[in-house]
Each structure stands twice: as C-alpha cells, then as structure tokens.
Amino acid sequence: MRNKYFWAAIFWTLFITVACLVSNDNFGELQKIQMPNKDKVLHATFYFVFTILWSYGLRTLKISDVRKRRMWAFIIAVSYGIIMEICQGLFTEERTPDVVDAIANTTGSAIAVFVLWRYQKRHFKKKSPAY
C-alpha cells in the first residue's frame, strides 16, 4: 500500500460512480432529511472530498509540486463530474444530466482547492521561513 491517499481516492471515485448511477430509491433514508438544496450540498461535498483525496493521491504519480497536484485534482474532478452527469443521461432511466449538479461539483472542488492552498501555505510557511 504505497500511498493510502491514492487508494482512498480510487475508492471514493468508485463510490461516487455507484452513487450517481444507481436508482434514487436506494437512498430512502437520505430522502427523509429535510434541507434546502440537499442534493447540491451533497454533490459539492462529494467533489470536495474527491479533490482533496486526489490532490494527495497524485503523489503516487510522482507529481511532487503541490500546486500542480491541486490543479490536476481540480481538472480531474471537474471532468469526472461532467462525465458522470453525461453517464446519468446515457445509462440510467431514472436520472438525468443536470448542469446545476455539475456546477455544484465544480464549486465543491474549487472550495477544496482553496482549503488545500490555505492549509499548505500555512504548513509550508511554518516548515520553511524561505517560503
């Protein structure tokens, strides 16, 4: 197990794939929760976690520059979110592609990039005064 974040990112990607392509009936308990824009918050949360995991998981591919990893994680997340929306239209009868879901995915990913940037800026500043 060379990079736990890489394997966590793989698992999370599979989880999102299944969650996006199975019937809404499988989420009966979740549907009982009353919250405005629950679906969009869920999309943003999924892609927030996705981006963080892939940002750290990309170290396995020898991308050592944290800025490049954040950028690639964001690009992968946005692309994957769009692909999942298209797949919902092509491979499911109950679900349809939704541009607003893709925007929520992108928003969650963008927030993750910002959080990573702030965290890494503070972390590296403490480690190296020359940052």
Automatic annotation (TrEMBL):
VanZ-like domain segment(s): 40-117
User: Does the keyword field hold Cell division?
Assistant: no
User: Which species is listed as the source?
Assistant: Flavobacterium arundinis
- Transmembrane region(s): 40-59, 71-91, 103-119
- UniProt keyword list: Membrane, Transmembrane, Transmembrane helix
Statement: the UniProt record of this protein carries the keyword RNA-binding: no
Protein name as annotated: VanZ family protein
Q: Supply the source organism's classification.
A: Bacteria, Pseudomonadati, Bacteroidota, Flavobacteriia, Flavobacteriales
